[in-house]
Amino acid sequence: MIILKIGIKVPCLVIINPKKFTMLRWTIIFIIIAVIAAIFGFGGVAEGAASIAKVIFFIFVVLFLISLIFGRKGF
């Protein structure tokens, strides 16, 4: 529950925890590595980093959809 300044209690259904975004953060890091490697002409490194970023991103999307469908049953 969140209590507003005027004294009204509002149920909080979304709690943002920065530790939960670790996989998305790694995806962004690998995309940045791929872009930098591509700029400097390291094709193999860029392809490897881009493929890792793509795999991690799709895993993140699948886990997000699973958590969205099943959700938290505690409320």
Automatic annotation (TrEMBL):
It holds the Pfam family DUF1328. GO terms for cellular component: plasma membrane. InterPro entries: DUF1328. Keywords: Cell membrane, Membrane, Transmembrane, Transmembrane helix. The chain crosses the membrane at residues 26-46, 52-71. This is Uncharacterized protein.
